[in-house]
UniProtKB/TrEMBL annotation:
PANTHER family: BLL5557 PROTEIN, BLR5614 PROTEIN-RELATED. Keywords: Hydrolase, Protease. The keyword Nucleotide-binding does not apply. SMART domains: TGc. SUPFAM superfamilies: Cysteine proteinases. Gene3D superfamilies: 3.10.620.30. GO terms for molecular function: peptidase activity. One of its GO terms (biological process) is proteolysis. InterPro entries: Papain-like_cys_pep_sf (IPR038765), Transglutaminase-like (IPR002931). This is Transglutaminase-like putative cysteine protease. The keyword Protease applies. Residues 78-144 form the Transglutaminase-like domain.
Length: 187
C-alpha cells in the first residue's frame, strides 16, 4: 500500500488495544486542544493527508532549541509557547491527531544522521510518533518533517511519561552518555 493512501479507521472499527491512543494523557492534553484541532484540520481529508497536515503545522509552529527544553511542558503549552525540543513536537502532533480521532503514540529512541548531512553535535535521544492508519502503525516526525532512515526505536507509549529516558527514585547524576550509529553497507 502506498503511504499516501493509508486511510483513517472509524473509531468503532479500531482494535481494542489501539483505543487507548485516542485518549488524553499527562502531556497530551487533548481536552485543551480539541476545538483548535477541529478548526485547523476538520476540512482536511481524513487519513494520511490529515496527519501530514498536522505534522506540517507542528513543524512550522514550534521553534526547536535545546535551551527551550522543559520536562513539564504539555502539548497545549508547546502550542502556546511555540518553542520546544523533539518531545514537544511529538506531544503536540500526537495530541492534535488524537483530537481528530486518529490513534497516535509517542516514540522514543535514537535518530542518527544516516542519509543526511552530519551535524556537529553529539547524538542524543529523539522523540517522534506513530499513527494507526489502514491497520498498521506509520512513523511521522514533526521536528524533522522528512523521511529518515536509521531510527532505533526503544519504546512507545501514550506520552513521555510511559517511556521516560530515566525514572529515578532519589538523587542521580548522569556522568556519561554516548551513542554512535553507522550505516551498514551491503557487501
Amino acid at each position: 500500500m502506498q503511504r499516501s493512501h493509508a486511510r483513517q479507521h472509524p473509531v468503532e472499527d479500531l482494535p481494542d488495544d489501539v483505543l487507548t491512543y485516542l485518549l488524553g494523557s499527562r502531556y497530551c492534553d487533548t481536552q485543551k486542544l480539541s476545538d483548535t484541532a477541529w478548526s485547523l484540520f476538520g476540512n482536511v481529508p481524513e487519513g494520511w493527508a490529515r496527519v501530514q497536515a498536522i505534522v506540517d503545522y507542528v513543524h512550522n509552529r514550534i521553534t526547536f532549541g535545546y535551551g527551550f527544553a522543559r520536562a513539564t511542558r504539555t502539548a497545549s503549552e508547546a502550542f502556546q509557547e511555540q518553542v520546544g525540543v523533539c518531545r514537544d513536537f511529538a506531544h503536540l502532533a500526537v495530541t492534535l491527531c488524537r483530537c481528530m480521532n486518529i490513534p497516535a503514540r509517542y516514540c522514543t529512541g535514537y535518530l542518527g544522521d544516516i542519509g543526511v548531512p552530519p551535524v556537529d553535535a553529539p547524538m542524543d535521544f529523539s522523540a517522534w510518533f506513530q499513527v494507526y492508519l489502514s491497520g498498521r502503525w506509520w512513523t511521522f516526525d514533526a521536528r524533522h518533517n522528512l523521511p529518515r532512515i536509521g531510527r532505533i526505536l526503544m519504546a512507545t507509549g501514550r506520552d513521555a511519561t510511559d517511556v521516560a529516558m530515566v525514572t529515578s527514585f532519589g538523587p542521580s547524576c548522569l556522568t556519561g552518555f554516548k551513542v554512535i550509529t553507522d550505516e551498514v553497507v551491503p557487501a
